[in-house]
Amino acid sequence: MRTFWASLPAKIRHYRPQLGLSLRVTVAALVSLALAQYLQLYLPLWAVLTAIIVTQVSVGRSLKVTIDYLVGTLGGAIYGGAIAVLVPHSSEIALLTVLAVAVAPLALAAAINPSLNVAPITAVIVLLVPTITHAPPLASALDRVIEVGVGALAGLAVSFLLLPSNAHRLAIEAAARTLDRMARALTELLAGLPQGLDNDALHRIQDGIGLSLVQLDAVGKEADRERGAFLTSEPDIRPLLRTLLRLRHDLVMIGRAAVVPMPEAFRTRLQAPLARAGADAADYMRASGSALLARRDPPALEPLEAALDAYAAEVAALREDGLTRTLPGDAAERFFALGFALEQVHQNFKDLNRCVAEWANPAR
Question: Which of 4, 7, 63, 309 is the most buried (most CB within 10 A)?
Answer without folding.
Answer: 63
